[in-house]
Amino acid sequence: MSRPSKTFLIQACPRHFRVDLRKTAQGYAVAQVLREGGGEGPEEEGLELFDPAGSGVLETEWIVPLVRQRPKPAPEITILSDRITSVVSESPGGPGEDWRGAAEMEAQTISGLASSEAVAATTRLPANSGMIRSWIVQAAIRDVAAMRNAVSGASGSRLVSLGHPAGIRLDPTAPQLENWTDFTLFHAAGGERIDLRGWNGPDSLAEAKEDGEVAAALAQAGQTAQILLAASAPAEAYSGTIADFSDPFWIESWSQALAKACDPLTGQILGLPLVSVPKPPPSAAAVAKTSGAIGLAMAVLLGGHFLLERSNHENLEENLREVKTPAERVSTARSQIAELKRELRTLQATARSAGASGVNVYAHRRRIGSLLDGIAAASKVREAVVVDFRPESLNTVLTGAATTFNAPQTLATEIDEALAGNGWRASLVRRTAKLLRPDGGPWSYEIRLTPTRPVRVDPGESPF
Known about the structure:
six-stranded mixed sheet; five-stranded mixed sheet
């Protein structure tokens, strides 16, 4: 049989069983239900578990024979145990109330665990106006660590979540009363958890049956009411269908209901608070093994890199010896001559262009000195900054960045007015949005300065 998609380990003292689910087109279905005593491998004795409180080995021995049965459990396992604290809390409050903190405090009064000793998960339930109703499960940190280590040590799987098995509906259309160890839960008829109520303590079942609303709902439902007896209960007459976990048939039926309660996509149990279990820290042996493997890999990489670099160095030296020949030096000289000729032709074309436009080239040299003054005069445009400027023939191109859309145009106007007397004309030729903010900004821009205005030359000033 193939490995299941999900595995649940159930602790309903004094019974323990394992539920394997497989993924189907409609959701999840039960693959098999395994109970204690069906394992193929020997039980592990003296399993050393992590116990931060120093209270010795915790009661997790029931996990080992279940996870060692074949087929292997799913890679991720969820434990539902009636040994952890489960409380349905209801108190007055509004939308701004810290309902999680209030629920955790109520759970701490029942479990006797301080907030630093426990982890908890809460689910808010529908309630009447002005009331806050929540469902909280709480477990000691040392218990969570012990269960996590027992799962990983015996199967190689990982414990991912922990919760209480209460809350699985056998028939959503009928009221249901569940009796677990020191906890009793009542569901009203209907699929919603609007009237979910809970009682805690050894007398929780008796207190629930004495409640007027519970008694009326069970009496009205008659034989359709579901009475789930997961823990040992006194032998007495109940009105309704008795689902007793001492009968394997009802364990199978409850497992089928568990599969239907799982989300078809994520596999999470819908509506139940579950404590997320973090991954265990790596063991010293795993750290040492990983470190050794990394060190060996680094040594191999460094050795290979050294050999490759030495080979490249030798090849480069050989190439240098080959290229240092008279013929190569002649070819290099010819290339340099060709490059100089191209630069000369470019200069000649630029001079002809300048003469044709009627611009005084010598006066243009004087304008270079006023260029920085014109850019500095536009410094009051704080939303734009000039990053670079470069010559293009007789023109000058400014590039930069701006934080607002209109800043590049404002900067171009300021520079145009500041340099008009020296023959420059400034115009914004490009503005590009970077789309890093909701308004599209910031923007990069390009301003072109062209010598298309007349330049005043002072009398007596030499153009050379």
